[in-house]
Amino acid sequence: MGENAKMKALLPWLLLATVLAGCAQKDRWPQRILIPKPPVQRDLLNGKSWTHKGYLLKALAEFDVSGRVLLLEKFSSGREADLSPEDLSLGWGEMSNGAYLSQIKLAHIDRYYQWEIRGEVPSKETIIPNSANIHFIPATDGVASILKAVRVQDLVRAQGHLVSVNAPDGWNWSSSVSRSDTGTGACELIWVDKLEVLLTPP
């Protein structure tokens, strides 16, 4: 067999080895809980209101969340994208632990975060209260710039307010204020006053 033929025969195996190596290196964090504390939320009975891009926003709760970025998705069309150009799915507790996450399949579909248990250890009772898909509304250009630079696996902290949004024509969008709900309306919608990347993967 000539050298070219040998290389062609080996190519599929080389590609497979490359893929497997890439998978093995995918999670560069230590296999432990990286963000131990859940979000801090203080509900507001009479939260402030303000306008932004022609919409009326009302604060529902003060919100401070730190988490591991599980998924991210950028958006450029639609009314939601006009306000919130990016979603981050964040995890804390066991949902920031790579060993736990390795047994769960995660996916972003439109502006929803979905998960599927693939191992014996994970449970919905742990996944649901320890993760959230969050629609980010940057309060400033500086926050928007930081948001654009965030990558999957980064550890981030966002501070601001969970909000409801109303348009003059009746269109509206509102945040969940619970970590235990699922389905339509279960995502958080946060007006982000401050965003920081705490750590990037080693």
Largest sheet: 5 strands, mixed, barrel
Count of extended strands: 10
- Which fold name fills CATH's third level, the topology? OB fold (Dihydrolipoamide Acetyltransferase, E2P)
Q: In percent, how much strand structure appears in the residues?
A: 35-45%
Order of helices and strands: HEEEHEHEEHEHEEE
Q: What's the number of domains?
A: 1
Question: For the record, what is the CATH homologous superfamily label?
Answer: Nucleic acid-binding proteins
Poorly predicted runs of 5 or more residues: 1-25
CATH class: Mainly Beta
Rounded to an integer, what's the Rg over CA atoms? 20 Å
Q: Strands across the major sheet, in which order?
A: 3-4-7-10-8
Distance between the termini: 44 Å
Roughly how much helix do the residues carry, as a percent range?
A: 10-25%
Output the number of helix runs. Answer: 5
Briefly note the structural class of the backbone.
Answer: alpha+beta
What is the average per-residue confidence, as pLDDT, rounded to a whole number?
Answer: 89
CATH architecture: Beta Barrel
Shape: globular
Spell out the key features of this protein:
single chain, 202 residues, alpha+beta, OB fold (Dihydrolipoamide Acetyltransferase, E2P), two-stranded antiparallel sheet, 5 helices
